[in-house]
Amino acid sequence: MNDVAIIGVGLHPFGRFGDKSAMEMGADAIHLALRDAGIQWKDVQFGVGGSLEVANPDAVTRLIGLTGIPFTDVFNACATAASAIQLCADTIRLGKYDVGIAVGMDKHPRGAFTADPSMLGLPAWYAENGQFVTTQFFGIKANRYIHEHGISQRTLAKVAAKNYRNGVLNPNAFRRKPMSEDEILDSAMLNYPLTQYMFCSPDEGAAATIMCRADIAHRFTSRPVYLRAAEIRTRRFGAYEVHSTFAPVEEDVAPTVYAARAAFEAAGVGPEDVDVLQLQDTDAGAEIIHMAECGFCADGDQEKLLAEGATEINGRMPVNTDGGLIANGEPIGASGLRQVHELVRQLRGEAGDRQVGGNPRAGFAQVYGAPGTAAATVLTV
């Protein structure tokens, strides 16, 4: 099995871009990744692309070059980009190709994510009683968690305020205005305990990552980042997850737990070895929950960690240094690749004003996609 190195990353800014199409954003991200890797499009032997709104991301090749490469399209809800990363990396690990690209792109309309429940095999009453509005489910999940583990609503505001501050330092972020905890708490209550500014926004953007066999990475770069693991797991029977099941709850363990454990085992590192984290903060409660699910703290310890600044850029456990989803928004197909872009920049020491200290050596990314698909990725230098 080949080891895999990341030799180039590219990111189209996240936000709103008028008539510019998702495909055009994807092409921009690819060009940036090629430039970063110092290679040409003809050097890329295969591609994997992901999107919610774009049915055929492979068509981005018409804007880059019709070189005839094999290209696979994937969709896995909010885990779409992580799925593209895993498929690209595993194809290289298995020795079929030496150099590949994973790209994600989306252009979402304004408003909360909603969907036809029949797409996910859910009963009609999920839509009939309004539960397929994601804000409602995130609120229910966060409310249960903070109640069970003694976490205050202000701690949720601390998460959001941190991510807005980090977004100010990120020129590619959608929201680049700091907000105080009080402003966040006083904003419109959408679904208790989550207020308006504790949520991310669906938006537009694209990202790309170029990978190769680790043993040939020196041909392209003197600073490769190694993709040690990319693992995806789904729910086990009885586990309750957001808008995902109406079965009896017997085992309340999220798939994120299993994905993170599998990634750490495959990578040969543990949570204690990670220097910088990217966690899916679809809402402020999600970041809190995923800290524990991924093994970085015990349930309920988040209150103390946030109070002491552990998750700040200069803390001992920096989380979402680029502002996460709360500052960047979420174009689904690109979101997990944005996380990897940030980790690569951090591990190379290229993150500028948001660079973490201490010469980071390992990064971790996690995304969660409804109705119960979790992904975890481990990078090292």
UniProtKB/TrEMBL annotation:
Residues 4-173 form the Thiolase N-terminal domain. Keywords: Transferase. The keyword Transferase applies. GO terms for molecular function: acyltransferase activity, transferring groups other than amino-acyl groups. CDD domains: SCP-x_thiolase. Residues 255-378 form the Thiolase C-terminal domain. InterPro entries: Thiolase, Thiolase-like, Thiolase_C_2, Thiolase_N. It holds the Pfam family Thiolase_N. This is Acetyl-CoA acetyltransferase. It comes from Pseudofrankia asymbiotica.
